[in-house]
Amino acid sequence: MSKDTEAKNLGDILYNCDDIDWDLALYLGSNDSFNLNMEVIIHDPDDVEDDEDDNPKVVEEKNYMYILSIQDIQSIKDNLEQQTNRIATREELLLAFEYYYRNDAFMEVELK
């Protein structure tokens, strides 16, 4: 995926994160609640004008905030799929993503 990425939805990013460069980051307009259809920006977190800038200009223009690195998201997906021994659904990925974001830890899955 290119370094300059147009807005996409969270569900597609979580499901297809393995196709995204690990050194990019996920930005959202809110971190109050997450849903699969919310618009996100994937962008290079180091693409800043100077050292005083926290976020890339394209992110600041939309008033978005840094959420997680793509590398973290790839790890969340990998951990979930290792625990369940199958490909995770978008809904499961969203739960694991939100759990990781809120707790800074991987979600433990109870297998039936």
Unreliable runs: none
How many domains, as an integer? 1
The major β-sheet equals: 4 strands, antiparallel
Distance between the termini: 36 Å
Instruction: Write down the overall geometry.
Output: elongated
Helical amount among residues, as a percent range?
Answer: 25-40%
Average pLDDT metric: 90
Instruction: Report the sheet-strand fraction.
Output: 5-15%
Structural classification: alpha+beta
Number of distinct helices: 4
Instruction: Please tell me how large the radius of gyration is.
Output: 14 Å
Beta-strand segment tally: 4
Strand order of the largest sheet: 1-3-2-4
Q: Can you write the helix and strand succession as a string? A: EHEEHEHH
Domain DUF7716: 9-109
Protein name: DUF7716 domain-containing protein
Description:
The chain is 36% helix and 14% strand. It has helices at residues 10-15, 57-61, 70-84, 90-103; strands at 8-9, 25-28, 39-43, 65-69. The chain is an alpha+beta fold and 112 residues long. It has a four-stranded antiparallel sheet. Helix 3 packs across helix 4. It has one domain (8-103). It is built from four helices and four strands. This is DUF7716 domain-containing protein.
